[in-house]
Each structure stands twice: as C-alpha cells, then as structure tokens.
Amino acid sequence: MQTFKYWLITTQRDRDDWIGDLARDVVNDLHFPDRPITYQAAAAHLRDRGACREATIALAHAFRLYRTTR
C-alpha cells in the first residue's frame, strides 16, 4: 500500500490547485513522515511547521481523495 506522502508527491504534484501546492511543499519538507500516517498526524505536522490555512484545507481534501483511490 502506498503511503499518503508517496501518493501525494507522485500523483498530485502537477495539479494547479492547493493540493498540487501542498504536494510540492511536501516534496521539499524533509521531515514530513514517510510512514503511513493519519490525517490528524499530518495536520499536526503542518501546524507545527506554521502552514497556512489553505495548506490545511488542501490536506483535508487530499486525504479524502487518497482514501477513495486506494
């Protein structure tokens, strides 16, 4: 099973929207977890990094999409 991070950076980073922005940010975030994580853990990571509101919204939408595609 693909982790959320792998799915996000390999299938979503070319999008021209907030999810694509998030995917490109995750590519550059050396501390974003590689292991399987929950939405809550990913959201906490973004908060700890000082992510903007749009990134948090994109994360929620991306996690919803991830769950439906796996």
Please give the structural blueprint.
Elements: H1 4-11, H2 18-28, H3 39-48, H4 53-69
Helix pairs in contact: 1-2, 2-4, 3-4
Describe the protein's architecture and organization:
With 70 residues, the chain is an all-alpha fold. It is 66% helix and 0% strand. It is built from four helices and no strands. It has helices at residues 4-11, 18-28, 39-48, 53-69. It starts with a helix and ends with a helix.
List the main descriptive attributes of the protein structure presented here.
0% strand; single chain; mainly alpha; 4 helices; globular; 70 residues
Oligomeric grouping of the chains: single chain
Q: What is the percentage of strand-forming residues?
A: under 5%
Gyration radius over CA: 11 Å
Helix content: 55-70%
Broad structural category: mainly alpha
Provide a count of the helices.
4
Mean pLDDT: 95
Q: Kindly state the number of beta strands.
A: 0
Q: Distance between termini?
A: 8 Å
Order of helices and strands: HHHH
Largest sheet: none
Dominant shape: globular
The unreliable regions are none
Quick take:
By secondary structure, the chain is mainly α. The protein has helices at 4-11, 18-28, 39-48, 53-69.
